[in-house]
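hi support,

uploading two proteins for the ticket. first:
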Amino acid sequence: MSKSGKARVLTPEQFSHLMAVISQRRWPEKNTAIVQVSFKLGLRVQEIALLQIKEIAELEFQGNRTTGFRVKDILALPASYTKGARATNRSTTPYHLRRISMTIEDLDRKLRRVEEMARVGAEINLEDFHPPLSTRKGKSRDIPMQDEDLREVLTTYLNVRLDQDPSLKPSDPLFLSQKGGPYSPNTLQDHMALMIRRWAGVEKGSSHSGRRTLLTGIIHGEEKGVGLKAAQQVAGHANAATTLIYQELPEWSIASALKRVGITYKSL
């Protein structure tokens, strides 16, 4: 079943455990900030990888030296960062189109054309019969950064970055990999899965767990209709039907329901 591939929605206890485990590992300030951005802002892993300091904080300068910063109240996420947009070439894995769709009538028309060309011995170039491909332009969105824990960990992390590099620039990547450069989306995806699944022991936890946990919580935590609309805006979905995917109850909620109605078996 396709649903088995969904990222796990974390319980509050699992999230607290994840934070505790990260604090005991290397680079706790950076890793805590990455996870908080994922779970509190609902960003896709590609969007987190592409974040620059200027989207999170306003730097203060004295000459060429960065002397301080102010964490912004609102994250203004550029359209070029969103799903499907080609913001950078950081990803080493090329995108391959897996699926196309067309009407039965269009398919029949193309097949008849191929038959006609084959009948008269004409040269057939299969690419001439490919359907046109649509491209995604991405969608910009503004996300409030009011959560106190999120602001605290971002402040702590940026202070570490500033201590390491007083020449910090607004266009510098927000998060740096172990090698010192920006993360590719693929590398950050693997790193987040390592933290959630391996370090914290959350089965089926992934880089999408933060986004799914947040959006599911918004939908079920607000008045019907209001929660869905809020989740749609946070997610950056053009179509509300896409957001409805997150309306399903999380696994731990279903497990609790099963436990409440379960039948206890006692051997005779």
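and the second one:
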Amino acid sequence: MREQLGLLWELQRIDLNLKHIKEERDRFPKEMKRLEESQNIEKERIQKEKEKIELLEKERRKKEGHLNTEFEKIKRAESRMMEVKTNKEYQALLSEIEAIKEANSRKEEEILQVLEEIDELKKDLLKREKEMATHLEKIEAQRKLIQDKMVKGEGEWKRRMERREVLTKQIESSLFKLYNTLKEKRQGISVVRVKQETCQGCFVNIPPQMFIEVQKNNAIIRCPNCNRILYWEGDGETD
């Protein structure tokens, strides 16, 4: 029976490992999706900033175009000054030129403000792009790590499933049936260690005499509280 208990204990550890691998397998796609979403958010943020700069550049070009048109008006008005015959016409033309120049001065100020805003946005964009590059590098590193884990997990899954198949053929059919029944009823855990006279499945103390018998690993002994099969591996040992 000692050998059978050892096989059951090994089977239990394999099944727990398989459960962990499955949980990881289910979790990895969610993590990949989260990384992709984070990547897209960064790219969209950069794109919006670029679009904002482009709108300002468009506004600047429009203002400059309008300003050039007004400069042409000034040139035409100044050329007409040589043709006027009365002082009244001269003064009217002079007033028109001054009005255009004042308006142009305001437009130049507006253009300078737009240029300053564009310059600041470009500086921020450059900083943001550097931050994004670093962020994307981290995302790519995380994606590579997840992919490596997925590949490793598949290898582990195959190896442990092969060993599990060997074990199931070596375990007595009645014990294997009991194992599966307990596994279904006890959240996937049929066989548990005893540590410091305590069942590690439900963490309830077992009777002293039972603890002595469990340490022999010569019989199927089940926890009086949770009904799981008890196995002794030693207090000083780890899972």
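thanks. also noticed: Residues 184 and 190 are 8 Å apart (CA to CA).
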